[in-house]
Structure formats: structure tokens, C-alpha cells
Amino acid sequence: MTSIPIRIVLVEPSHPGNIGAVARAMKNMALEELVLVRPKQFPHAEATARASGADDVLARARVVESLAEALSGCGFVAATTSRDRDQNFRVLDVRAAAERIAIEARRSPAAVLFGAERTGLLNEELDAAHVLIRIPANTAYLSLNLGMAVQLVAYELFRACTNPVVPDVRTAPLATPEEMERLYVHFEQVMELVDFRDRTQRGTNLMNRIRRFLQRAELDQNEANILRGFLTAVENRRRTAGVGKAIPPK
């Protein structure tokens, strides 16, 4: 079977043996692209030993300094979680998530994020995710080893890709994480320009809510550009009315 075009991203893995176990799980299930964000130890002899024949996956693994680099060029992004999160996230069972990822991977590169062994993914590391993946487990002991978690997700991805469901119709690819981040920056600029502010005590909830509902909306590139155009029109109207200066989009 040819490889499946889905990127596995490990954020700050601390144990090199787990990286090797992930590589083995990936090769078992025809996944080839592994990206490591700030691994504590890599390359490492224990990673090679635990890979047990998946040395080629380790050899191709990319090491990057930021999650933005790891997701560069991706469309659909799913992130794994073992704990309750903000209710504004869309959460899918691992099988349903795998079917969705398999569909999106045919259009543009897709990615699945896994967090550090002790902490999982931090809230800010979920910003680019369209959905969260929950793996059903004993509620008295939900903790899964990193290698085991990747194996379970990889199996469901293999199953979904070899038994594909009919995809929904999309005429344009999803906006990339980079494009969405530019949209969010533009939103914040215009919100400041029109004095649309977060009135909560912490003053940080509004932009987070905007990020969450736009991630759930799964904007394609055309839709993101429409919103950017609308925001630019607001800036220009404010400028012609003599209220401040338009801020050039970044």
C-alpha cells in the first residue's frame, strides 16, 4: 500500500523511546511523515532501537522549533486530548475523527497533533485545530502512553483510508494555519480600530471565542479571503470618515 498523506506531529516529546515507538506504529499503518517540535532528545539510540525496523521513518523525521513550522502547508488539523477542554471545541471520537481526516487528506496535507507525555497539548497549542480527538478509555485511568495513543489513531487512519467514505463537496482547499493566523491578527486590528473590546475581567476571552468558532467553521481559502476583504473595507470606511488610519493587512 502507498503511504497515507497525513502528518504526525509530536510536541515536545521527552522520551526518545517513545519517538521510536511512534515511528514503528506509523510504519505499521503506512504513515511516513513525522514532525518533532522541540524534542528533548533526538536523534537517540533508544529511539532507533524502539523503532524496530522503522528507521526510515526516523531518518525522514523533521525537527522544528515551533508548532507553526510543523503545521506549515497543512489544511485540516486534529489534536488529541485526554481531558475536558473548553466547550467551544468540536470533539470527535477517534474513529469519526479518522474518517474526517482521511477525507481532508485527499484535498491537502492533514496533521494530527500529540502533546508531551506529562502535560499533553497546552490550550494555546490547540489554536490551529479544527477538531479534538478523544480516545475512549476506562474513566478511572484515561492516561495512554504516547506510542500507544499514536498506534490507536494510526490504526483508525489506516482503516479510514483503506475503506474510504464518500467525501463532502468542497471547491476550495481549507485555509492553512498561516492564513488563519493572518485573519486573526487582522480581526484584532479592526476590533481595536472600532473599539470593539473584551469587557470581561480577564480581557482575553473574546478573541479566543472568535478563534474557536472560526476554527469550527473550517473556512476554505476563499472564505478566509472574503473575511479579510470585509475587514479591509471596515478599515477603509473608518479612514474615509476621518477616524484613524487603515491598517494594512499583514
Class of secondary structure makeup: alpha/beta
Overall radius of gyration = 20 Å
Question: H/E series, N to C?
Answer: EHEHHEHEEHEEHHHH
What is the helix tally? Answer: 9
Determine the CATH topology of the largest domain.
Answer: Alpha/beta knot
Q: How many individual β-strands?
A: 7
Mind telling me the CATH class of the largest domain?
Alpha Beta
Beta-strand percent range = 5-15%
Quick one: overall form? elongated
Domain count: 2
Measured between the Cα atoms of the first and last residue, the distance is: 42 Å
Let me know the CATH homologous superfamily of the largest domain. Answer: SPOUT methyltransferase, trefoil knot domain
Q: Averaged pLDDT, please?
A: 90
Which CATH-level-2 architecture of the largest domain? 3-Layer(aba) Sandwich
User: Uncertain spans, ≥5 residues at pLDDT below 50?
Assistant: none
Across the major sheet, the strand order is 3-2-1-6-4-7-5
Helix-residue proportion: 40-55%
Largest sheet: 7 strands, parallel
Task: Tell me about this structure.
With about 250 residues, this protein is of the alpha/beta class. It folds into 2 domains: about 5-160, SPOUT methyltransferase, trefoil knot domain (Alpha/beta knot); about 175-240, Helicase, Ruva Protein, domain 3 (Orthogonal Bundle). It has helices at about 15-30, 45-50, 55-60, 65-70, 95-105, 145-160, 175-195, 205-215, 220-240; strands spanning about 5-10, 30-35, 60-65, 75-80, 90-95, 110-115, 130-135. Strands 3-2-1-6-4-7-5 form a 7-stranded parallel beta sheet. β1 (about 5-10), α1 (about 15-30) and β2 (about 30-35) form a beta-alpha-beta unit. The model has no long low-confidence stretch (mean pLDDT about 90).
